Prior knowledge:
- The protein has 15 helices and 21 strands.
- By secondary structure, it is an alpha/beta fold.
- 34% of the residues lie in helices and 23% in strands.
- It is globular and about 65 Å long.
- A hairpin with a 2-residue loop joins strand 7 and strand 8.
- The strands form five sheets. Strands 8-7-17-18-19-16-20 form a seven-stranded mixed beta sheet. A five-stranded parallel beta sheet has the order 10-2-1-14-21.
- It starts with 5 loop residues before the first strand and ends with a helix.
Amino acid sequence: MIKKSVAIIGAGITGLTAAFALKRRGIPVTVYEAGPRVGGVIRSQRRDGFLAESGPNTILETAPEISQLIRDLNLESRRLYSSPAVRARFIVRNRRPVPVPSSPIGMITSKLLSMNAKFALLRERFVPRKQDDKDESLAEFVTRRLGPEFAERFADPLVAGIYAGDPRKLSVRHAFPRLAQLETKYGSIMKGQVSVLRECKKTGQTPRNRAPSFSFDEGLQVLPEILAARLGDSVKLNTPVTRLVQNAETWRVMTANGEAEHTAVIYCGTAYQLAKLDMTTQKPVDLSAFAKIRYAPVAAVVLGFRREDMSHPCNGFGVLIPAIEGFKILGTIFSSALFPNRAPANHLLLTTYIGGERHPELAALGPNELVELAQNDLRVLLGATGKPVFEHTALYSKAIPQYNVGYGEFKASMDEIESKARGLFFAGHFRDGVALGDLIVAANTVAERVSKEIFK
């Protein structure tokens, strides 16, 4: 009799967290990772006194599962919360960073919006609900409820910062489900925000705009590395899965290094690799459609400057840029303001993102060209002078899945495949959202599903 176990494909944050959750339930796991390292897009590198994050910079602590994971890993002493001062965000208007108000009332006096846009904000609670079930883009949704200027000045840079995407293509229902639900449930974004605050207090959840952000003393890479250490030999690096075969009660997982039998499989890789996966199931399924999921290319440019070479104080979270402003970069995070020990004394560290759906061709530039492009825009935006004293670049040719209009078809396909192929589960950034906090929650959810459906 084959001992029950779970195969997890992909050692990003979703796969590692799911494996850890299952192992704590006493369920044997094997994590198959095609590459030489764990963590996926999470990459932290310390050099010359600077700590560069090439991928995500923070995790939002929006759910109890996130806090519990840190406790279970005994990482409380290494966790660093960002200072309340860095809650300040900036959006560019007239080629200058303007502080984003922290409340709807602050919008009324903000320089980010014209008087017409401010009146539209006040009228939002009286805008009727959408009557049909048509999948709507974020730009359409925001324009309908708040007007075109709000879509242009707020939705566009927000999308650049989260998805590196195009608000005219991204589905509000799938890319920003909480926003769509405010209208569906409460009839208004403004009314809904007030109600959500009350509900979050009852459930223990934290609204995203109030959730604390955190990292670790040596960057976010601490989390996947500690997870992998706790999993030990269960993590198999440089072991791509070449074929999956469903048998009557088990799954045969084949790799270049051999094969093994497992009771269940959790796929936590990328959508484009899923489309290529050779999989034989008892009821035929088609994975080829997942190749159509668009991934935005993104280049990260991390630059260190002497404090005196920057006229802007860079004392908030960062700055986002609407496309209408005409800059090449998507935005910049003030990395050294977020957490201590990111830069030497009297220095600043800035992480700039280039490419996305706005300028996909720019993400493929060479390191020197990327640094020059970033410098040129930072010179105008923040008054950066002189040459950076630290440079680090990273390219992700397929960085972030785009939850574009019609994405519901992909999610429905995943549900259908799971129902046909018992013991196969999907989780990860192409299904559960792109924020690290969402992926940690999703990993715990899929572990609970596997535990109940397969090991009950």
